[in-house]
Description:
Number of strands of chain A: 0
Distance between the termini of chain A: 8 Å
Number of strands of chain B: 0
CATH superfamily of chain A: MetI-like
Distance between the termini of chain B: 22 Å
Number of helices of chain B: 14
Shape of chain B: globular
Oligomer: heterodimer
Helix content of chain A: 55-70%
CATH topology of chain A: MetI-like fold
Order of helices and strands of chain A: HHHHHHHHHHHHH
Structural class of chain A: mainly alpha
Amino acid sequence: MLPRSSAPTTEAQTIGTPLPSRRGLGVKGLTRLLTLPGQIVSLMVLVVPLLVALYMSFTDWSPTRGTLFDATFVGFENYSELLVYDKRFVYSILRTLLISVVCLSLEFSLGLGLAVLFLREFRGKSLLFSAFLTPMMILPVVVGYTFWMLFQTNGPINQMIEFVFGAQATLEWFRSAPCAVTAVIVTEVWHWTPLFFLILLSGLNAIPENPVRAAVILGASPRQVFWRIILPMLKPVIIVAFVIRSMEIIKLFDEVFMLTRGGPGSATETISLYIYKLAFNDFQLAYGAAAAFIVLVGSLLLIHLLLTPVRNQIMETGHR
Amino acid sequence: MNTKKLSLPLAVLMGIALIVVLFPVFWISMTAIKPPTDWNASPAIWVPSEPTIINFLTLFDPEALGAYGVGGVSQAATKAVYGSILAAMVATALSVAIGLFSAIGISRYGNNSKATPLIILSGRMFPPAAIAVPFVIMFSNVGLIDSYTGLIAIYVAVTLPFSTWMLKSFVDDLPREIEEAAMIDGRSRLSAHLTVTIPLIKGGLFATTMFIFILNWSEFMFALVLSYSNVSTIPVQLAKYVTATAGTLYGVQAALAVFAMVPLVIVGYHIQSHLARAMTFGAIKQ
């Protein structure tokens, strides 16, 4: 941060120091007034339900057994049942991880490639930029429904396959497990590659020119400049993109709900879909809550690992 | 102006990418103007020979398709459209208002704890299906289930981290000296923020409002589990068409999808320069 020579008091130069005023509320009172509504909402609508869910996950409660207070306390029974015996839960985790890894790698590669193309100037650039952002502005439910239509057996994707490879190559997309998973991945990649493109492009644009110029003058090839100079400087931005996308894709629900409802069988059942079915189709609410906490702890660990190498840089940009 | 043409291979690459990006949008728009005979034709019809707006009319008048001899649309989408507009608008206004005060509080008087962003992020990571469970229980006890009040309360809480953090990044960008000057002129802190800070981040406030509106308008799962007969939103109605009619109402569904999509795309283009900041909780500024 630049030093501010014109600041009236030296204390005012650091963020967090009270602003000078002799009138009205004091700093403490004002801070409380400003942040109170947000804290009340978060407490009532996020913290309280989380605590209720946590308590519930240690009971055998279901809606047919009276109120939550009548439920029997079962300790970690739900948790051990889930992790040891519930194959469907373990598979839904592995499946979500597999879909996430494939989707994020594809989204990153395509997004980075597209962003690099957008570093040069060309005619119609701003129009193309807007066009490429379109998918991420569309409602997930609409994206799911659109691709459900595209992947119909008599839909346009099969038509194109038939045109290129012949009629025997067409697929019944929602009838076989690998095809259905592919359809989900294609949908996700189409929907969210623009986010990677957007974040990486703003990262690339923010890279200072001097190190790049120096490397070119010293005789580095374009490839060397990209791998040795640009990519390392882009690392914090890349990690931000991955963290944001991981958080969302772990919760993958809307698109899959519209595309396959988890089918065929449970071939495309993600964690969110499984928890949804547990809670709202089978009414095993306590069991579903336990599943949710396992997922929360798991994803927190994952994000923590991902963030460790760049924590300081990210926190600084987030707090500037 | 530094405008050049792309080299041929790059132009071809760009063209392919553009087709891939726009094709689904083209398809849903075309389906929305197909007459019932073209909806599920085999092979699929790309561009309808007789485009019609009958699908859009059917959204608000279930009998409209009678002219084509197609019945069985049980429900107009009027309630869902009304519900989406009501829930998204009220929730957006509340979320941005509360977020704005929190943002000023955190930016100007916060203790800058490094843990705060992580706590916020972990809130975003919890599967919504699981948060929905205690909501359903609590709301059915206090009569908030299947009510717009309940839905709006959840929407406000869920979007609050986004509105707070995005607005905080705009307040952070504003030099503190401007507010200090107003205070030295004799204003109280609160009045300095109301008359100086807020007008100066007008642009950011607008972008945040639009972004939160996109989030609320798109939300699906909470609306799905908390609505029965009184409450409906467009995404829920879209999902219902799929289940209720086993996919026989392609055109009407597509019309609803287009109806839901158009406002978001318009809003999205308007705030595209702020989207990176919005999606990353203010961590990346464009």
